[in-house]
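Weekly sync notes, structure subgroup
Attendees: PM, AL, DS (notes)

Item 1: joint prediction request from the bench team. They want all two components modeled as one assembly rather than separately. Inputs as received:
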Amino acid sequence: MARIVQKFGGTSVGDMDRIRHVAGLVKAEHDKGNEVVVVPSAMSGITNGLVDKIHAMSPLHDTREYDVVVATGEQVTCGLLALALQNIGVPARSWLGWQVPINTDDVHGKARIAGIGTENIVSRFAEGQVAVVAGFQGISPRGRITSLGRGGSDTTAVALAAALGADRCDIFTDVDGVYTADPRIVAKARKLDKITYEEMLEMASQGAKVLQTRAVELAMNMGVRLQVRSAFEDLPGTLVVDEDEIVEHQVVSGIAYSRDEAKVTLVGVADEPGIAAGIFGPLSDASVNVDMIVQNVSADGKRTDMTFTVGKADYARAVAVLEGIRDTVSYRSLDLNPDVVKVSVIGVGMRSHAGVATIMFQALSEKGINIQVISTSEIKISVLIAEEYTELALRALHSAYGLDAD
Amino acid sequence: MARIVQKFGGTSVGDMDRIRHVAGLVKAEHDKGNEVVVVPSAMSGITNGLVDKIHAMSPLHDTREYDVVVATGEQVTCGLLALALQNIGVPARSWLGWQVPINTDDVHGKARIAGIGTENIVSRFAEGQVAVVAGFQGISPRGRITSLGRGGSDTTAVALAAALGADRCDIFTDVDGVYTADPRIVAKARKLDKITYEEMLEMASQGAKVLQTRAVELAMNMGVRLQVRSAFEDLPGTLVVDEDEIVEHQVVSGIAYSRDEAKVTLVGVADEPGIAAGIFGPLSDASVNVDMIVQNVSADGKRTDMTFTVGKADYARAVAVLEGIRDTVSYRSLDLNPDVVKVSVIGVGMRSHAGVATIMFQALSEKGINIQVISTSEIKISVLIAEEYTELALRALHSAYGLDAD
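Output from the run, pasted for the record:
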């Protein structure tokens, strides 16, 4: 007997037939005598529809009310999946975030899980009951519904697997694993049998949508065995594992991209100590995540330009914050550009290989692609380029790093 | 300063513009310095869509999961309306059933309110905050989401008005008041300025959709001043009042109809003591509401026919129950007919006037309409007829009782 968490993405529960199919996959594990927790996402399209309604009502919305609205998507799937399971003879009940409870902090819209009470669910395992837990949502210390940020159902699943000491956490999705690059763009992309937690973390945080960043981070920290696999085909997926489980490393394991970036430049900022804090402090207070940051050297030692990127979801809020601090920070103008894409090459092999960046810059240069911002970490190099070059850049880099399938 | 509960129906919050319009109506009361609680329904069509999904998944569904799914409709409107209010400078927050809390029993799908904790909401009045409370939902003693039955938002509003000692409970809807008959069918129907609680109760329970039965019952018992008015036009509505506030009574105040009926006949039931309990006990255990009941006199003293009606929502469940008790009750066959309508004439004046039923039977007979079942109370007479005669019957009765507008 094993304890298993199964997470299903939005496409996997996209209509009634697919929810029935998912119920069948759950039943298969349940029939083996396993203790099963299922975490469904909202049906595909539903969350976007809800977010559109919120934006139509109020671009600068109260994130507490945002959470009240968007949490309904998973609530609906949860109820329907519990019914589908009952229909095929599997005892099941739905659990909403506040019922489990999944306790979070009160950073609405992107809350972090603080702890999970597992007694309720575990006590039902003895009765053979499957727990259908709403992904993406929790409850704040003030008793309000919180959401964990887009893709948060992955985090729910991994956190539940960790709290329950589960033997496995299967992430069922509409692709059959993790690829060297998005196969919809790069036809020669290959599926990876295994990937390290660290690479997966960079892939996810650099835009690969197959897993949420925090879910991977949590799985790495808590030692949760993660598998990304297809909800539609019965194929082995990609295992996310410790580095020592992979014998031969490629220098670069994958290439990710993110269109969810907007570039902001504060032109003519005073070049003096404390100015960065004066800009990024207020942004952080408004829960705006800043990603790449570049500060140019100032010619005269008085004024400089500060460039950074923010997520598109935070863009309007970031601009409002920056307009609000214009008097204290005293910049000359705001230069805004949402038409950018961040492309990243990722691989733990970079640690022991030189010249990885050079290959990237050359490959992009050969295609005439201008690099606007560069940022690096130990195992990844990211560049910001004009969005129109996305596909061209991805294919060029995939070839340049020798990742193309035969 | 007054304390006011405002309830808005599904059409009134049917899209973003209408939610904004509702926010304006709330602001108008708030600007007068009043303490305001708003109870929005789900956006029109949403609840039906959710119910369709549930039925597609499972006709004989677990009502606990039904409630999890359908409660999302009001949750969405609540969040959006709170945002709309904040947008126009009115401090507001959403409250879900479990947050208020609105405590109910655990009869899922049609739970009854057991008590409302008002401290949380009242404490925010001091800060000028409007409470946007999700209609139709509560929390059971076991901590699960319950729903109050279709139209349950009216009950939420009245129960809140009672618990808060509100000065008024305004029910905003897509019609401008209570009519002598459905004006979409009876062109000569007239709007009533006032109607008694008792008549309103019969109108509602006999199918007039303008107010939920239990809401009226609760308002009557708790002395809540109720007004039915238009969400779209600034017109006086219909006041629901005590009988002594109405000086001149018509014998009949209104005519209602309900298509939400299905007729069930158990043919050849043993005519012996305890047989009714053997049939209606199991139906009641399955939370099937039985309405009109007729037992024919048996010719031979051994076998008889038992006819009754159930709500269409309970129809499949009722049939399943009846098939399950076939061995114990031993009837010959089940005769099922969902194509029926119940037409009722209602008026407190009936108490002191004879011959009211005769007018009804004659009017229907003149149009060649066969009466299948009759049931009466002190202030109403209901008949079950074939559904195809609905409009003909309503217009004939409206004229026969002298209700036609000039």
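Discussion: Residues 3-174 of chain B form a domain with the Carbamate kinase fold (CATH 3.40.1160.10).
Action: AL to compare against the crosslinking data before next sync.
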